Amino acid sequence: MEPQRRLVEPFYFSGNRVGCLLIHGFSGAPSEMRWLGERLAKFGWTVHGIRLSGHGTTPEQMAKTRWEDWAKDAEDGVRELRETCDTVIGVGLSMGGLLTLHLATLGLIDGIVTMNAPMVLADRRTRYAPLVRPFVKFVGKLTAPATGTAPGLERFVYDRIPVDGLISLNRGIRQVRSKLSAITCPALLMQSRKDSTVNPVSVQIIKKQIQHVNPILHYWENSGHILTLGREREEVALKVHEFLLQFMPQESIS
């Protein structure tokens, strides 16, 4: 597969009967999740990395899509994994984490791993998106590049963001936040301390709303927003693997 296409194409690695649905972030592509997917596959897990509608193409294509489209993509991904897996775990980065929470509020998945899932965006300008909508259709990246990203790991991401998409993301955040208490499955919540895109208070909001499932909370000290490609990515993959072990049938472990 040519390098550029590899960055935007979905991926699937066949493994055991526990499937991991890997969901990338807003304006990103499957390249954000591929490295983690390859690591989890080496551990024996089945891995499905999806591409959300309008992503991995052009900002103009993304401008035609909304939260409802991305939620449907995530729900379709679960259905595809259910064809070969008894158990499905959502593993999402940023908006992918928000979509993972969405799936859990619907009772569609058996466990969740969120990485820098947004409840509060770091850049306050995002809340004024509806005000600028009559004047501009796209805005530049709202934050500086994430710190702590490992060199040599390529990532496809848009340099312009559709304002309509940003408005829709904010609507998705509000919808998911209002339904968090419906989550009943095990949860691993991860948050980077050096996140310049999502306010780290987000993970505490999630934790408080799903306290009834005793979520595991883990902070990463030396990673930026793209936790899956940061300098702690090996430890991140191990932490996800350890979380997944609880879903293996006992006879498979012994």
Task: Tell me the helix content.
Answer: 25-40%
Adjacency order of strands in the biggest sheet:
1-3-2-4-5-8-9
Estimate nothing, just give the exact number of structural domains: 1
Which spans of ≥5 residues are poorly predicted at pLDDT below 50?
144-148
Number of strands: 9
Q: How large is the share of residues in beta strands? A: 15-25%
If you had to describe this structure to a student in words, what would you say it looks like?
- The chain is built from 10 helices and 9 strands.
- It is of the alpha/beta class.
- The protein has one domain: Rossmann fold.
- The strands form 2 sheets. A 7-stranded mixed β-sheet has the order 1-3-2-4-5-8-9, with helices on both faces. Strands 6-7 form a two-stranded antiparallel ribbon.
- α4 packs across α5 and α5 packs parallel to α7.
- The chain is globular and about 60 Å long.
- It starts with a helix and ends with a helix.
